[in-house]
Amino acid sequence: MTVSSAGDSSESIASLVGLAPLEAVLFDVDGTLCDSDPLHYYAFREMLQEVGFNGGVPITEDFFAQNISGKHNEDIAELLFPDDVPRGRKFCEDKEVVFRKLASEQLTAVSGLYKLKKWIEDHGLKRAAVTNAPKPNAELMISSLGLSDFFQAVILGTECEHAKPHPEPYLKALDVLKASKEHTLIFEDSVSGIKAGVAAGVATIGITMRNPEHQLMEAKPTFLVKSYDDPKLWASLEALEKKDA
After folding, report:
1. Which GO terms label this protein's molecular function in UniProt (predicted)?
2. Is the pTM of this model over 0.85?
3. Quick check: is 230 catalytic?
4. In the chain, is it the N or the C terminus that has fewer CB atoms within a 10 Å radius of its CB?
5. CA trace torsion 139, 149, 226, 112 (10° rounding)
6. Under 8 Å between Cβ of 21 and 240
7. If we measure between CA atoms, which residue out of 245, 219, 229, 223 comes closest to residue 13?
8. 189 tagged catalytic
9. What single-letter DSSP state applies at residue 133?
10. Which residues contact 17 (CB under 8 A, 6 or more apart)?
11. Are 126 and 133 in contact (CB under 8 A)?
């Protein structure tokens, strides 16, 4: 599978044409459907500072991107509180309460999402959300974005034996939708999520909303786009349509 940088349109187009006929599109939720990472970062930064993490020095956005974004809470708990994982789990639970309050007031869709939603519906494609987010978070974000009736399945990392970056959540989505990995497309925004999609053998497009491009490229996405308005994405989908026809 071709891996191209954010600026290489010709390779990006070529890499999607091979998916024809496209059967399904799978989406991560946090940072992929909605711009939620700033809310997560704010909650983690404020709450970790309150408990004296890192000597009371606030975590940076780089620390958040490298160690927290896209990861399952169990892994985050072990990373932040390696000597007291139960405390880490409770901390993450409390942080999610803060996040949901922020999200209920401030959540916004990634630019171009509803344009892509219509394209997917118009083409009769199968679709699922695949997320490491806790169930209450996933339900809140999906419903707030008006996507509850759009997704035919929602796969939670908490309901799989292994969460992302393991491929199991995406493989489960393919099984539930009865879709083949060779004709499915994934949208992701984190290193953890891209690794999961790539490991599942599915073409995975990275969204460079918040996480650094060079970090995402290390996970070997098919290519990167800035948002769902990115002309490169639509050039690729148009080429895919022509191939399908």
Report:
1. catalytic activity; metal ion binding
2. yes
3. no
4. C
5. -130
6. no
7. 223
8. no
9. S
10. 236, 239, 240, 243
11. no
| Alpha-carbon gap, residue 70 to 88, rounded angstroms | 17
3-state secondary structure 15-29: HHHCCCCCCEEEECC
Catalytic residue from among 30, 35, 37, 189:
30
Catalytic residue among 28, 35, 37, 75: 28
Q: Could you give the CA distance from residue 57 to residue 243 in angstroms, rounded to a whole number?
A: 54
3-class SS letters over 174-242: HHHHCCCHHHEEEEECCHHHHHHHHHCCCEEEEECCCCCHHHHHHCCCCEEECCCCCHHHHHHHHHHHH
